């Protein structure tokens, strides 16, 4: 083989590998056409954006949150965008029986389930911990236990359809920050629980995969309302975050990070614990809280 040929082969292969590395797993929107999907916390924010992306691919969706009147409007928009089916069920995830009721409704209405997208969160103050244990208990049910209940209820159906569970988590489920004690606790709980579930499903050679999505600050109304005045951190668009969440499930990745640098921040902070604690506290203005 001539030198030129060898060199061009090396260059060609390197370029191909680089392109593969840069592109990540390929994401085909087509694969979602007709897919049966349940999205929680879809009346607003990232969940609403997830519903719209799915609608455009021609999926069949059930959405849930507490406010039926708002869900109804999201459903109408989903149908206009091209959803094969779009339905809603109002539910309050702090009520112990609602998580399972929602899964049952979706499976019945859609005749099965391909994706379960767990995204809802209950409102929680952005403030110094004030000793409100009842709020923490309530938030644990809404943000964590209801996810466990829904996942467990959906797994038998997802086994049959080779389906996926997508869990929307946060950087605050992997690192600690001031003013978010109860919220952060629920996200750490999610990461711990669903990380275990990933191992167990793989060991059982289950058909079901779990994707955990770690998000940084996203520009939803509820998040912006909280951090306004306290920090100047850049918030990333909810519609982009929603697309990355869907992509994580379709490509069956165990973890994704959005925006991309959150992955590096989370890993590098452990190498410099003192520095990173100082930087984290420096993000927030103490005066704004007192
Ligand atoms: N935005 C960010 O900066 C950010 C950063 C990292 C991670 N995340 C994660 O991304 C996900 C979505 O966040 P987001 O900012 O889009 O939230 P959001 O705008 O506050 O939306 C929360 C959703 O949950 C529903 N919900 C609230 N309480 C509920 C309850 N008791 N029962 C059932 N549904 C309830 C809300 O609808 P109703 O009021 O109608 O019930 C709404 O649809 C969350 O898992 C969050 O932790 C967000
Ligand atoms: C996984 O899916 C296959 C069909 O694709 C099915 O035969 C098998 O029973 C499923 N596994 C479980 C645990 O349900
Ligand atoms: C955000 O930036 C503005 C203008 O640069 C500054 O006055 C303010 O103190 C900053 N706020 C915080 C919380 O860092």
Automatic annotation (TrEMBL):
Pfam families: adh_short
Similarity remark: Belongs to the short-chain dehydrogenases/reductases (SDR) family.
GO molecular function, one term: oxidoreductase activity
UniProt KW keywords: Oxidoreductase
Species of the source: Coilia grayii
Lineage: Eukaryota, Metazoa, Chordata, Craniata, Vertebrata
Protein name as annotated: Hydroxysteroid 11-beta-dehydrogenase 1-like protein
């Amino acid at each position: 083989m001539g030198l030129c040929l060898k060199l061009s082969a090396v260059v060609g292969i390197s370029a191909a590998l680089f392109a593969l590395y840069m592109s990540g797993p390929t994401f085909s929107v087509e694969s979602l056409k007709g897919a049966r999907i349940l999205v929680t916390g879809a009346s607003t924010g990232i969940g609403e954006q997830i519903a719209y992306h799915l609608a455009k691919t021609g999926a069949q969706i059930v959405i849930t949150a507490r406010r039926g009147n708002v869900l109804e409007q999201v459903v109408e928009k989903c149908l206009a965008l091209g959803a094969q089916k779009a339905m809603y069920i109002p539910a309050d995830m702090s009520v112990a029986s609602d998580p399972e009721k929602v899964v049952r409704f979706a499976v019945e209405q859609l005749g099965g389930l391909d994706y379960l997208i767990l995204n809802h969160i209950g409102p929680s103050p952005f403030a110094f911990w004030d000793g409100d244990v009842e709020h923490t208990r309530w938030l644990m049910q809404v943000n964590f236990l209801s996810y466990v209940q829904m996942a467990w209820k959906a797994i038998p159906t997802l086994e049959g359809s080779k389906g996926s569970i997508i869990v929307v988590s946060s950087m605050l489920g992997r690192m600690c920050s001031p003013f978010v004690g109860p919220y952060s606790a629920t996200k750490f709980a999610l990461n711990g629980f669903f990380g275990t579930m990933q191992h167990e499903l793989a060991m059982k050679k289950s058909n079901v995969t779990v994707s955990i999505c770690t998000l940084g600050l996203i520009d939803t109304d509820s998040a912006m309302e909280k951090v306004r005045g306290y920090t100047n951190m850049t918030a990333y668009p909810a519609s982009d975050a929603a697309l990355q969440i869907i992509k994580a499930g379709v490509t069956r990745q165990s973890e994704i990070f959005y925006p991309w640098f959150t992955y590096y921040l989370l890993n590098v902070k452990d190498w410099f614990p003192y520095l990173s604690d100082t930087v984290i506290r420096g993000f927030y203005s103490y005066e704004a809280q007192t």
